[in-house]
Amino acid sequence: MSVQPIFQLPFAAAFLIFILFSVIGWCSEVLYVGIFHEHKFVNRGFLHGPLCPVYGFGGCVILLLPKELYSTWIPLFFASMILCTIVEYFVSWLMEKTFHNRWWDYSHHKLNINGRVCALNSILFGFLGLGIIRFVYPQIIRLLNWMGTFVIQTSARVIAIVLTIDIIITVRRLVDFNTTMEKLKTFGENLHDHYGHESWFKGSSVYEMAESVKARASIEKERFNNSILERIENLQSKRQLNIESFMKRFPTMKSSNYKNELDELKLRMIAHIAEVKAERKNKSGRK
After folding, report:
1. Which residues make beta-bridge pairs with 113?
2. What is the pTM of this model?
3. pLDDT, tens digit, 9 for 90 and up, residues 178-204
4. Segment 99-131, tens digit of pLDDT
5. Residue 47 scores a pLDDT above 90
6. What are phi and psi of 162, to 5 degrees?
7. In angstroms, rounded to a whole number, what is the distance separating the alpha carbons of residues 40 and 280?
8. What is the C-alpha to C-alpha distance for residues 286 and 278, in angstroms, rounded to an integer?
9. Are 200 and 212 in contact (CB under 8 A)?
10. Long-range interactions of 1-6: CB distance < 8 A, separation 24+
């Protein structure tokens, strides 16, 4: 099997291959989650575009393997499995260190390593690597040869600009995510500092604590600062749409810094979804 390794290609062509692998990974994630879990469309990537860069990196790493492996089956399977598992583990670790959240967690899977990778995914990576090297990559090379240098370079530049904009917007959303979580945690700590000594005060999350303060304020409102009551009203009436968006994409995400707040938001989101479904069911029943 004679296929040109990726490190022998011009940078623009290698970049387009990375993008194509990222798109293939995104499609695989969306189909897998949509068919077997959510039964609906869920954007499984961090970015707004249809890309999962971790698959792009994994696919490109596989293409760094010795050319002699390209024509094999079992050695290529295990090499792909090991390399992609290492990439997924590193990306999980890097994302957690950068944004202080674990975006996916496989602790409930058998044969997992620190919840970052698991045997099932590794096996799927092995098959995906076989498919890429044996079937997909040769077709991509033919496509690039057909496109020509000018089209490849122009396409790479346009996609790079769009991708850069998408990354900037996504990073801002991730920063906003942590900022919002920090505000929720701080507000909960402030409520505990003010009213933790009161016998009526209870709750392990900011929402439970806010509810107990609100309930007490209905009895003796003069004891409570209006600004705190206003913040409680805003907290209970305003949904955290940015956080909910990430939770829908990564339902197993965890946070060591904001565990209670994140768990409570998950419960509130689940309750909201149940309310929406019940309302739709009632409306359809009346029809």
Report:
1. 117
2. 0.80
3. 888 888 888 888 888 888 888 888 877
4. 888 888 899 888 999 999 999 999 999 998 999
5. no
6. -60, -45
7. 17
8. 12
9. yes
10. 1/70, 1/71, 1/134, 1/138, 3/67, 3/70, 3/133, 3/137, 3/138, 3/141, 4/141, 5/63, 5/64, 5/67, 6/60, 6/63, 6/64
